[in-house]
Amino acid sequence: MDKIKVLFASSEVSPFVKVGGLADVVGALPVELNKDNVDARVILPLYKKIKIKYQDEMQFLGWKLVRMGWRSLYAGLFQLEKNDTIFYFVDNEYYFNFDQVYVEYVFDIERYCFYQRAVLDFMGDFMNFEPNVLHCNDWQTGMMPLLLDAHFKKHGYHTNVQTVFTIHNLKYQGVHATDVVREMLDLPDEYLRDEFCIKDRAINFMKAGIVFSNSVTTVSPTYAYEIMTDYYGEGLNYTLQKYAYKVSGILNGINDLEYNPKKDDKIPVKYDIKTYQKGKAACKESLQKQLGLEVNPGAPLCAMISRLVDQKGLDLLLYVLDEMLYDGMQIVILGTGDNYYERALVDTANRNPGKMCACIDFDSGLAHTIYAGADIFLMPSLFEPCGLSQLVSMAYGTVPVVRETGGLKDTVTPYNEFTGEGNGFSFANINAHEFLFVTKYACDLYRNHKDVWDKLIKTGMSGDYSWKKSAKEYAGLYSLITGIPLEEEKPEVKAEEKPEPKKAEAKKPAAKKAPAKKSSAKKSAAAKSDKKEETK
Ligand code: ADP
User: Fold this and answer.
1) Tens digits of per-residue pLDDT, 16-39?
2) All domains of the chain, ordered by start, with CATH?
3) Global pTM exceeds 0.70
4) How close is the Cα of 173 to the center of ligand 1, in Å?
């Protein structure tokens, strides 16, 4: 049976290049899908760091001239295989030969216009891969479903390619002047309409992705619901409401090859659910020494690893940080971002030597040692599409304190002292003192109720955060929008339980087994006809 072919397009892909969770997702999901009867490949820009590190392993597939308005620009295509997955890289040094991934907003718009056009030009014969599904991620790829329609499908090319658009963060939308983007993308006038890609008289890449893709996914069910409301909708809530029938939420997983305290070479002492008491104690002591904190096993060590932006609830943290430190908590922050937050955190850390450390850096090694050495992980986010850090922290036996939003709400069940259920702590409102009180409550349990704390750690560590389940959901979605059935999964049969031949039942198409996606298939079919109506 033919595998469903999926091409992922993304501006970040781990382990090649990472700014945030987007990279983790596009680095892990295709690898998991490839274990699961899908032929998933990935295409990303060839940034400077990737070129330097991987150029010897890459194969040059060829080059093309890509049109950008009046200009024709060189685009090279390279290929590399890693983790049984094929990765393609779009080369153009003028656009991508920079140390950082994102350079400057207006230039980024131009860079990703070029990238999107190059991907579509390379797709098919050139890369010897005609996907059934083009899976776009965030604004940097949002115009591709529209461009596919305007430049290819209308002229009889790639007519069978279906599109999925995943929103990892609705806040960043790719908005720019209509005339400039129209020129770079050669957009026909009939597409420059409020119902399509125009929002507030500018072109909005995110909006185009929502309108023109066959299916829209977000990275958690709660976020899928939240973004249709005024508060979380970032101005696109009405568009999302209009296309609600094709929107669904699929939770992210974490890469268990990277985040597993039992096999993690980056942490001082490896541990698992049986040995966590000794293991975490040793990791905590080592972390306290490394960061110049007082070596005190009894002090609750609260950590945050994050981009330092308002989304992450840093205003709530800063408001009650002094009170937290006064309460005896040790605080460790690892992150980079807005100057204001960086300075405010360093300032408080300088005033509290031995109690707080603010590491203004992006350091994945240190991140691992913090996940292992901390007791409590703080995520007071204003909104959180999915959030990976709370999953990683639970896998490492670090108990999360989160605000009830997006993926945090879907993955962290607050501790219930009556039933004993839960894997963390949560608070509902954007209120610094709610955050403080629930963190103090967690610290109280940590200090005085060891049995409860051990149960919380064990519940967190035994959770399944792998990509397996999510990958199955995505595979079901691809199957439903393309109409290509998935191969029936072979049940694991123990030697002593071999089935009798007559028991073999008529095979059902696997796609039908996924109830959540059934409706999205119908929805997607509806989406197609609906869009045709609108384009007329
Ligand atoms: P977002 O995608 O909004 O940045 P997520 O929680 O989804 O947030 O993912 C963030 C990822 O980036 C996590 O894997 C986290 O460990 C990692 N990360 C964030 N900041 C840093 C940093 N300064 N150093 C190392 N890793 C970081």
Assistant:
1) 999 888 999 999 999 999 998 899
2) 4-249 (3.40.50.2000), 276-461 (3.40.50.2000)
3) yes
4) 20
